[in-house]
Amino acid sequence: MDVAENHSSIIGDYFVKAVIIAGGFGTRLRPLSCTRPKHLFPIGGRPLLDWTLERLADARVEQVVFAINYMSEAFVRQYGKSVCGMKVHYCRELRPLGTGGCVKNAEKTIGHDEDFLLLNGDILSKIDYAQLVAQHAKNGGVATIALHKVEDPSRYGVVDLVDKSRVKQFVEKPPRGKAPSNLINAGVYALSPRIFDYIQDKRCVSIERETFPALVRDNELFGYIFEGLWIDIGELSDFLKGNRLLLDSAPKAGRPVKTVRIASTAKIIKPVALGDRTVIEDNSTIGPHVTLSEGVTVGKGVHIKNSVIFPGATVSDLSRIKGAIIGEEVLVGKRVSIAENCMIGDHVKLNDDVTVAKGVTICPNREVAADARVSRCLL
Predict the structure, then answer these.
(1) What's the whole-number mean pLDDT along residues 251-280?
(2) Within this chain, do residues 242 and 286 fall inside the same structural domain, yes or no?
(3) At which of 212, 232, 248 does a domain end?
(4) In three state form, how does the secondary structure of the chain look?
(5) Do residue 158 and residue 281 come from a single domain?
(6) Phi and psi (nearest 5°) for 55?
(7) Of 228, 300, 319, 361, which has the maximum CB count within 10 A?
(8) What is the CATH number for 366?
(9) Domain total for the chain?
């Protein structure tokens, strides 16, 4: 049984809404984020947000509010009016409003009757929402931040705690070696409606750089430390790491499949997630840590390791892919080699015998006939 289920009555007492920030442009994951929000990238055989929504539903959250801007219609098509038994609302921004401004923009939808959860949509985590809620209720403050320990906190907002839970200092992305602790902002918050008093209306507001320091001054900001799976998938290496961690922690990741055809001489090295209508032909080796989305076709003698392949892609005979992300409907020709940290945009065609070197990205709808041996973006 999921830990959250043991505390579901706590969730029921305090929260029925969760706000998911999903308005980012995903610039560090271009070109793949040029054609879809990064929050909908397949990971472990399902869109990233599906994992978060499923855990919220398990915790008996009743309503989800999407704070969206970039490619907002993609979220509406994906989730409609309800998901996992939860009612869905959409709060669109006419222009980017930041992590605080998007909350203020959703104020009427969220309401002032009860506390709520706020989550960054590009986080993969197994945080226990119920325990966060319980800690927030105990603190009695305006906000409680979920905190996670990392080796290098310079990429994140860093917190210094006193009295085990009150935040003494909040520093956004401190210089390397200057952080007050290794406790970082994990992008999950429990908030009182009083948070709206700390956010100005109709302008871009950073909740990390503006709102949280104000709460620190008023002794209204608290922290909740948790361990376990947590990763921000904002960069290619982090996305692949998240896929590995998810597959390791959830051996049966992905949706149930009806039609998968795997040749008897093919080799699957677990953990692997296979989408519906996947075809893997003779003498191919898939895994470990590979996600093949629905409709992917893998030819003969192919080797794929530590990679994510988007829907409808074809990898032809004798090709090699290691540590890469392959976009939707990509055609990888025969004897193609794709090295680590490569991103191949949607509808790209890689001709036979092409070598794609480490760190190359290729923009959508391009045909590549010659080797790409220098780390760069092919427009």
Answers:
(1) 84
(2) no
(3) 248
(4) CCHHHHCHHHHHHHCCEEEEEECCCCHHHCCHHHCCCHHHCEECCEEHHHHHHHHHHHCCCCEEEEEECCCHHHHHHHHCCEECCEEEEEEECCCCCHHHHHHHHCHHHHCCCCCEEEEECCEEECCCHHHHHHHHHHHCCCEEEEEEECCCHHHCEEEEEECCCEEEEEEECCCCCCCCCCEEEEEEEEECHHHHHHCCCCCCCCHHHHHHHHHHHCCCEEEEECCCCEEECCCHHHHHHHHHHHHHHCCCCCCCCCCCEECCCCEECCCEEECCCCEECCCCEECCCEEECCCCEECCCCEEECEEECCCCEECCCCEEECEEECCCCEECCCCEECCCEEECCCCEECCCCEECCCCEECCCCEECCCECCCCEEC
(5) no
(6) -70, -35
(7) 319
(8) 2.160.10.10
(9) 2
Residues 227 and 275 in one domain: no
Same domain assignment for residues 221 and 330: no
Specify the pLDDT at position 58.
Answer: 85
- Residues 39 and 90 occupy one common structural domain: yes
What's the mean pLDDT in 338-352?
95
What is the pLDDT at residue 350?
96
Same domain, 208 and 312: no
Over the stretch 319-338, which tens digit does the pLDDT of each residue have?
Answer: 999 999 999 999 999 999 99
The predicted pLDDT at position 124 comes to 86
- Quick one: 223 and 301 in the same domain? no
Pairing verdict, β 123-125 and 324-326 = unpaired
* Residue whose entry in the numeric block shows the structure tokens 């226990």: 128
Same-domain pairing of 41 and 160: yes
With b for 16 or more beta-carbon neighbours within 10 A and e for fewer, the 155-167 pattern comes to ebbbbbbeeebbb
Structural domain that includes position 311: 255-378
Q: Is 367 exposed, middle or buried (0-12, 13-18, 19+ CB in 10 A)?
A: exposed
